[in-house]
Amino acid sequence: MALEWEQVIVHSEDPVALGQWWAEALGWVVVHSSDEEFEIRPAPDRLPGLDFVRLDESKKAKSRLHLDFRPDDQDAEVARLVAHGAQRVDIGQGDQPWVVLADPEGNEFCVLGPRRQ
Asked: Could you tell me the strand order of the sheet in which 67-69 lies?
């Protein structure tokens, strides 16, 4: 049996707004949009994607699953994402080489530092 990773589902109070925020943050394209669902991918035919699906309740606790991103320049990328509306958050990570941010609905994600050689 073979499995292909299709997408990550993100429950959202406003899937269109949050999905559009992520599409702009990542430079991805929209492949589906409705009031209940908003799907983005790196390119129309490239997987995996992110699929934002309406859930009419607020996030209540630390996310059990989050995304990690490794940019060329961590400081510049953190500054860009914060200017785009991300918030720095403390989830108890302490002093680490990554930065924890949250999207407009409070979903945490990490901006990693340079790869170890």
From this structure: 67-69, 108-111, 99-102, 87-88
